[in-house]
From TrEMBL:
<dbReference type="InterPro" id="IPR013830">
    <property type="entry name" value="SGNH_hydro"/>
</dbReference>
<dbReference type="Pfam" id="PF13472">
    <property type="entry name" value="Lipase_GDSL_2"/>
</dbReference>
<protein>
    <recommendedName>
        <fullName>SGNH hydrolase-type esterase domain-containing protein</fullName>
    </recommendedName>
</protein>
<dbReference type="InterPro" id="IPR036514">
    <property type="entry name" value="SGNH_hydro_sf"/>
</dbReference>
<dbReference type="GO" id="GO:0004622">
    <property type="term" value="F:phosphatidylcholine lysophospholipase activity"/>
</dbReference>
<feature type="compositionally biased region" description="Acidic residues">
    <location>
        <begin position="229"/>
        <end position="238"/>
    </location>
</feature>
<feature type="region of interest" description="Disordered">
    <location>
        <begin position="220"/>
        <end position="240"/>
    </location>
</feature>
<feature type="domain" description="SGNH hydrolase-type esterase">
    <location>
        <begin position="15"/>
        <end position="197"/>
    </location>
</feature>
<dbReference type="InterPro" id="IPR051532">
    <property type="entry name" value="Ester_Hydrolysis_Enzymes"/>
</dbReference>
């Protein structure tokens, strides 16, 4: 750091979950966690900040197990300072669905998981459970339960908790065959390209929330943001600051290449 140069402000993000957070693919021979792409997206949007992400995904873990998500995230936050993470991104439930857990039981335990970081002053971005390529009667039952859980997740309201619909953002069944081959590994987990896509989608959602936090209380005319090497000045669109469907984010093509 140069003399008299102010230290960068830090944004710390924990990505917590099961194998889909760990980046499991190719029968476990490769792990390509999405937090790496998520961090890149946020760094592009906020070059004046130091962005730190940590991945805590465990293959095969269940939200509803007595030794699963609740205990693991409780232990993690107990060992860190109360404000260690500004944001916690949580994705879980795929394994619980495979074990036949009911939508209501899964949702109740997800709320307990979310409450841990919230109680430690970490904002939460809860992700809906992605689709899976499970066929037959079992697949239909799992899909019905998934839809119900995701409806409960999207309808839940609590201070400092936000929801991103990952299931809709990265679908399985409605993708073209070429995209399915590119982004999905075994019908349950993603390929490395798929995890990169997840990181891009979740990263942009988190950027939107960070922008709204930073400009909270300001009028639209004051919501201006300069981008390095750009001559233009952009203004955020007016709208409900709590809604991901209003406002916009500018990303240059050269930054995405």
């Amino acid at each position: 750091m140069a003399p008299n140069e102010a230290p960068l402000k830090t944004i710390r993000i924990l990505c917590f979950g099961d194998s889909l957070t760990a980046g499991y693919c190719y029968s476990g021979t490769v792990h390509a966690p999405y937090n790496e792409k998520l961090q890149q997206m946020i760094e592009m949007a906020f070059p004046e900040y130091s962005i730190e992400t940590e991945e805590d995904g465990r293959d095969g873990d269940l939200v509803t197990s007595k030794v699963g998500f609740v205990r693991r995230i409780s232990d993690r936050f107990a060992s860190d300072s109360p404000s260690s993470y500004n944001w916690t991104v949580i994705l879980g439930g795929t394994n619980d669905l495979a074990h036949g857990v009911s939508a209501e039981a899964l949702f109740e335990d997800l709320k307990r998981v979310w409450d841990v970081p919230l109680s430690h002053k970490s904002k939460v971005l809860a992700l809906t459970i992605p689709e899976a390529g499970v066929a037959g009667a079992r697949g239909r039952k799992i899909n019905d339960t998934r839809r119900r859980v995701n409806e409960l997740i999207k309808g839940y309201k609590k201070e400092n908790l936000h929801v991103y619909d990952l299931c809709a953002a990265v679908p399985y069944h409605s993708m073209s065959e070429d995209d399915r081959v590119k982004y999905w590994d075994d019908g349950l987990h993603f390929t490395p390209d798929g995890y990169e896509l997840v990181g891009q989608k979740v990263g942009m959602a988190l950027v939107s929330l960070l922008v709204k936090d930073m400009f909270k209380g300001q009028t639209p005319a004051k919501r201006k943001r300069n981008f390095p090497d750009d001559d233009a000045m952009f203004e955020e669109e007016g709208g409900d600051p709590k809604s991901l469907t209003t406002g916009y984010i500018v990303v240059r093509w050269k930054d995405l290449e």
